[in-house]
Design brief:
Blueprint: E1 4-9, H1 26-32, H2 46-53, H3 60-69, E2 76-81, E3 92-100, E4 103-114, E5 117-128, H4 132-136, E6 143-145, E7 153-156, E8 161-168, E9 171-180
Antiparallel strand pairs: 1-2, 2-3, 3-4, 4-5, 5-9, 6-7, 7-8, 8-9
Helix pairs in contact: 2-3
Length: 181
C-alpha cells in the first residue's frame, strides 16, 4: 500500500475557524473522548479510516479524535503520510488545506505511539487581515506571554497549547499549536 495519499472532501476536515480560539481544546476534548481505537472502522473519519487501511491501530483513536476536533464540514483536502514499515509503530502525519470562514489555513497533525497509547499534535496556520493585536483578541482564553524572540508574540493557553502571532504585511499569521498526550 502506498504510504501516503491525498483527497479532497466537501465535509470532514475543516478547521473550526469561526472564532478559532475555542474555549475547548483537543486536550479537554480528550477527557470526554477516550483515546482508545474505535472498534467500528466504518465510524472512522476519512483520515483515520485511511490510517486503519494502512495498518495503523494504536493511534486510530487519537487520529480520529484530533481530526474530529478540527472538522466542521468546510471544503478541504488532505495528504496522509504513514510509515513504510511497521505503520503501527511509527509517526503518522497529515497535512490539510482548509477553506474556512476566516480564510485559507494550512493544518498539520502528527501522531506517534507511546507507552500510554498515542500522542498527537496539530498546528493550524492562518493568515488574518487584521493586526496581531486584533487577532489576539480572538483568543480570549489565551494570555499574552513572552515573545519567542523579537517579532513573534506568544499567547499561552496552558502547558500544551500556544498561539504564535507573526506580523505579515498589513495582516497577521496565527500558528495555533497543541500537543495531546
Amino acid at each position: 500500500m502506498n504510504p501516503s495519499f491525498s483527497f479532497r472532501a466537501a465535509a470532514g476536515l475543516a478547521l473550526l475557524l469561526a472564532g478559532f480560539a475555542l474555549p475547548a481544546s483537543a486536550a479537554s476534548h480528550a477527557k470526554k473522548t477516550p483515546p482508545a481505537a474505535p472498534v467500528n472502522a466504518a465510524a472512522l473519519g476519512p483520515v483515520a479510516n485511511f490510517a486503519a487501511q494502512g495498518g495503523v491501530r494504536q493511534c486510530l483513536g487519537r487520529i480520529d479524535q484530533i481530526s474530529n476536533f478540527l472538522t466542521n464540514g468546510a471544503v478541504s483536502g488532505a495528504s496522509v503520510f504513514l510509515p513504510p514499515r511497521e505503520p503501527d509503530h511509527g509517526l503518522a502525519s497529515v497535512s490539510m488545506e482548509v477553506q474556512g470562514s476566516n480564510g485559507l489555513s494550512y493544518v498539520s497533525t502528527g501522531y506517534s505511539p507511546s507507552a500510554t497509547g498515542c500522542d498527537g499534535d496539530y498546528e493550524a496556520v492562518t493568515y488574518w487581515a487584521g493586526t496581531c493585536e486584533q487577532v489576539a483578541a480572538s483568543f480570549p482564553d489565551f494570555k499574552l506571554a513572552r515573545p519567542l524572540r523579537q517579532y513573534i508574540q506568544t499567547l499561552d493557553g496552558g502547558p500544551y497549547a500556544k498561539v504564535y502571532l507573526m506580523p505579515a504585511g498589513q495582516g497577521c499569521i496565527s500558528i495555533k499549536k497543541e500537543v495531546v498526550y
